[in-house]
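Tokens in:
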């Protein structure tokens, strides 16, 4: 998705001075209701997907600190880094005097930050529905009219995902796919947000729902499943031939039905934020490329 997500709202979406001075409250993913005297102007974000969502809602200029993995859009690279999401530098965060700290549900830093008197909101999108909800909550924190902010952006996201799905060649629809989320291997299962995208692109995930969203699997599982398409980032595989035992002989590898994404592309794919539609486009482009390499006989006979 072009520059849409970086500045989708434009200057007109910024809250008015009176709106920014209005007290507000939001209930986070912990079930904790956080009350703020006004819309936060100094924000620390400790999760890349939250950083990206904030920026997609025209809130980048409010960032005063980010985690070490937040790197999009470009403005984020100029913001002070305060450690990782799971190992933040509490002293550095406190020194920035933030009005709000955004953290993931996996972070254990909430208690320490709150003990220092800081306002903490824990959010963690793991599905399309949760990505939409996080967009709404951050939009509420920024006091942006949903019609101009969260709902407008989500409608565009859904439309772009649908457009990506329509671009998948008929010959690839219904194919069985394996997506490696990270080295381990950890797979993107059917219930993960990546799995949701693959389903919307008419693909069949070999890692079904009962295994969880991102299970660690035995490489032999993939060999036995014999998927039509393999997907991973160059962080996981150094070449298009995965290094796990027996994988070089797999049908998908022999036919070249392998998509290996760059590190920058992997960031888009593994973050359940406002670039979900861009991720769908990357996956669709992969399938378009694979469709040109699969022999007709193989394409016709792989509906397992």
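Residues out:
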């Amino acid at each position: 998705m072009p520059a849409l997500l970086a500045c989708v709202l434009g200057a007109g979406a910024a809250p008015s001075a009176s709106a920014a001075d209005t007290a507000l409250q939001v209930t986070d993913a912990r079930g904790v209701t956080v009350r703020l005297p006004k819309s936060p102007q100094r924000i620390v974000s400790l999760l890349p997907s939250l950083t990206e969502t904030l920026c997609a809602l025209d809130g980048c200029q409010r960032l005063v600190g980010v985690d070490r993995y937040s790197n999009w859009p470009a403005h984020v690279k100029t913001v002070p880094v305060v450690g990782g999401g799971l190992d933040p530098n509490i002293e550095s965060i406190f020194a920035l005097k933030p009005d709000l700290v955004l953290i993931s549900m996996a972070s254990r830093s909430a208690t320490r930050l709150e003990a220092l008197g800081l306002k903490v909101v824990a959010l963690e999108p793991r599905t399309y529905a949760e990505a939409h909800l996080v967009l709404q909550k951050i939009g509420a924190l920024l006091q942006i009219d949903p019609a101009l902010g969260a709902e407008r952006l989500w409608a565009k996201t859904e439309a772009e995902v649908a457009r990506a799905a329509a671009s998948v060649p008929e010959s690839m629809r219904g194919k069985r796919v394996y997506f490696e989320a990270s080295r381990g291997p950890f797979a993107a299962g059917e219930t993960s947000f990546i799995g949701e995208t693959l389903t919307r692109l008419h693909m069949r995930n070999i890692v079904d729902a009962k295994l969880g969203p991102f299970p660690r699997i035995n490489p032999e599982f993939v060999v036995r499943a014999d998927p039509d398409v393999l997907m991973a980032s160059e962080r996981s595989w150094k070449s298009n031939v995965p290094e796990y035992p027996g994988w070089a002989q797999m049908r998908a590898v022999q036919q070249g039905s392998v998509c290996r994404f760059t590190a920058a592309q992997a960031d888009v794919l593994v973050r359940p934020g406002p670039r979900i539609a861009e991720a769908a486009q990357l996956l669709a482009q992969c399938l378009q490329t694979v469709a040109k390499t699969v022999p007709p006989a193989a394409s016709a006979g792989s509906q397992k």
